Amino acid sequence: MSGQQDSGFWGAEDAGRGGQIGQGQMINRRQFVSVLGGASAALLLGASMPSAAARQSALQSQLVRLVKQQRAQGLIRSDEKTSWSVYDFTGGKKLVSINEDAPRQAASMLKPFVAQAFFYTMNERGSKLRYTGSVRESMEAMIRNSSNTATTELMQIVSRYNGGNGPKDVEHVLKRHAPGVFQQTSIVEYIPANGRTYRNLASAHDYSRFLWALWNNRMPNANEVRNLMGLPNHDRITKRVKGMPSNIKVYDKTGSTAMLCGNMGIIECHDRRGRPRPYTFIGIIEKSQRTDYYGTWITNRSNAMREVSSLVYNYMRQQHQLA
């Protein structure tokens, strides 16, 4: 896959299995490790933990072959890097990990992180920040409608309550509360109204850890962030995806610039007995230089991502006898 593949990682998503992430509890490191269990807690605390490489999953092999075909067809070009991640909540397994720790342009996929930074700030001891109706409207505009103006407004609110140093304050809040989740996240600029934001970064693994924590209610106001991400929108991982039911539920955020096509989210399906079988899907296609043909470029990359999402869904359908 033109050097795009790296080692896959198995096991529980390393956001940790116990306790809520980042509620500002006054406990020491030893107590924290005792509560959460060694490896998971160490990652949450920002410690450097070795990752054990494992054999490549069947799904990852299939995905690698598909992306190679897409490159051969010109749907993904040689100057474009990709990252892919799939985590199966039911089996507790990372099924796909390709370039997962490489920092990529975040674009609008960063917006749920901004929402989470707001809620971290609101939940800090003594905070006077409140989730008012007008703030809720801004949150919906930011995540559902991808409003850049609303995003800058919320980033400025977070900064105002955290030192007034601008966008970096959003990153500092996230890493203060959950350093093990936001490991490759770098937030250095507001998103301008024209959407030309190229300097904020995050990795597919950051999104995966974030979604794991969100689904398992390990972050403050996780239910509200999920609700916002679950509002109907124009995603690339369930809409117009071959073989995927039209009524499937997705909690997601897209990212689109002249250098980036991305989508990260949780796809909530059910098996034939009605039991939930959710999984995460993160896809990122990053171009080295801005395209001069944005409409054609983003459409083709979106369709390439839909092909990959279809492959993943069909694999999950067979594994879990999805309805």
Q: Within the largest sheet, what's the order of strands?
A: 2-1-7-6-5
Total of DSSP H or I helical runs spanning 4+ residues: 10
The dominant shape is globular
State the total count of DSSP E strands.
7
* Radius of gyration over C-alpha positions, nearest whole angstrom: 19 Å
Fourth-tier CATH superfamily name:
DD-peptidase/beta-lactamase superfamily
Keywords: Hydrolase, Membrane, Transmembrane, Transmembrane helix
InterPro entries: Beta-lactam/transpept-like, Beta-lactam_cat, Beta-lactam_class-A, TAT_signal
Transmembrane segments: 32-53
Domain Beta-lactamase class A catalytic: 134-271
How would you describe this protein?
Helices cover 38% and strands 14% of the residues. With 323 residues, it is of the alpha+beta class. The chain has one domain: DD-peptidase/beta-lactamase superfamily (Beta-lactamase). Strands 2-1-7-6-5 form a five-stranded antiparallel beta sheet, with helices on both faces. Strands 3-4 form a two-stranded antiparallel ribbon. Strand 5 and strand 6 form a beta hairpin. Residues 1-12, 15-20 and 22-54 have low confidence and may be disordered. One of its GO terms (molecular function) is beta-lactamase activity. Its EC number is 3.5.2.6. Keywords: Hydrolase, Membrane, Transmembrane, Transmembrane helix.
